[in-house]
Amino acid sequence: MDALTHYREVFGRALPDSLVAVLSVADGNDDEGDFFLHNLLGVEEIIAIQTVQEQTAESFRRVGLDCDRWVRCPEPGVVSRKFWKPGWVPFTADDGDSGFAVDMSPGPFGTSGQVITYGPDPAVRTVIAPSLTEFFELISARLELGSVLVDPCTGAVSLCTPAGSSNLVESLMR
User: Fold this and answer.
1) Which Gene3D superfamilies does this UniProt record tie to the protein (predicted)?
2) Residue 134, H or E segment
3) 44 domain residue, yes or no
4) Does residue 170 contact residue 164 with C-beta atoms inside 8 Å?
5) 46: part of which helix (H) or strand (E)?
6) How far apart are CA 104 and CA 141, in angstroms?
7) What is the pLDDT of residues 115-160, one digit of tens each?
8) Which residues contact residue 1 at a Cβ distance below 8 angstroms, ignoring those fewer than 6 apart?
9) Does 143 map to a domain?
10) Which range of residues forms the domain containing residue 57?
């Protein structure tokens, strides 16, 4: 069974077309953190992380913990103020289980396919870009501006904020 079929069998829906296009070029990355200190996920990694996120959220609910109360959402109605929501498809992850996801179940004022943040660090759900294409265009624009840091020891490249933070989420937030 191929990975795309496996995803459909596990979650009952296909991966978003925009993400399938990315995966056809790069089905993940070989070295951890090569995508601006994040991992660009392959299909099997997407399945694993999405499964863990959904199971974690369900475990919290089952024991009566409201994990959603820890989440900040500066755009109510655009992104759901949830720890995790079915319909969020992760495509990057850092070493702390946070990253970016394609939001296929946005709030009433959101857009299906928007790119959002997920995970505990930071526990903020916000739109980074209206689409996956615009997400990569945003990264390209930051690179063209020279908003990068290069670790002299490892050669790792990260995007940075004007204040010098190399956190990818912070560097892409509007």
Assistant:
1) SMI1/KNR4-like
2) helix 132-145
3) yes
4) no
5) helix 43-62
6) 25
7) 999 988 768 899 999 999 999 898 888 788 777 777 777 766 777 6
8) 9
9) no
10) 3-131
